[in-house]
Amino acid sequence: MMWVLIILVAVALVGYLVTQELKKSGDFEKYVPAPKTPGTTKGRLPSPTYETKPVQKSQKYKLVYDGAYDFESYTFEIVGEASYQSNIERFAVKRDGKGSFTEVEARIIRDLNNSYDKNATKVDINGLTVGYFARNNAESWVKLLGRLNMSDNSEVFVNAVIVGGRSEDYKFGVRLDMPSRVANSAKYIQLG
After folding, report:
1. pTM of the complete model
2. 184-to-36, 57, 145, 190 alpha-carbon distances in Å
3. Domain count along the chain
4. Contact (CB, 8 A) for 78 and 141
5. What is the DSSP string of 123-168?
6. Where is this region: Disordered (predicted)?
7. Phi, psi angle pair for 65, to nearest 5°
């Protein structure tokens, strides 16, 4: 019973202090209670409405690289494959004692819900994540999308290769067939 009394006194004190602070700032006199709207029940506020941006339709693009900048194929390395070994292994064709060199098609797409990096760009194969662009490359990718007027949810398909996996000590990796410098990819991206 004593705790209930202490809590009630604390709530009343906080309410009083907030009111005093509002009076000092001049905002107390400007306060106008929200009008009651039809359909609301007593003591309950109507649900807030949020202004949302229209969702842009995802565009599909293909990046076809001719190796002009790097003079070889599959030069672009991604990161984080160690966390997605089980996904990569599903698509890897293993050769006895030689590991894998499996050509696949990968999809590059922004990870808009990533709480660690606002520019996060993931790579997946058949809908399963296999890795991410390194931070500096992800930032360059986002700038490239903006420069090409491509929406944030654009999907870019690119040839890729799964390498490694010769033994337990050698993990699988994924390399993309695109310029090692992201900015050079602009002229290789085509609609469709």
Report:
1. 0.68
2. 58, 26, 12, 14
3. 1
4. no
5. EEETTEEEEE--HHHHHHHHHHHHHTT--TT-EEEEEEEEEE-SST
6. 29-53
7. -105, 140
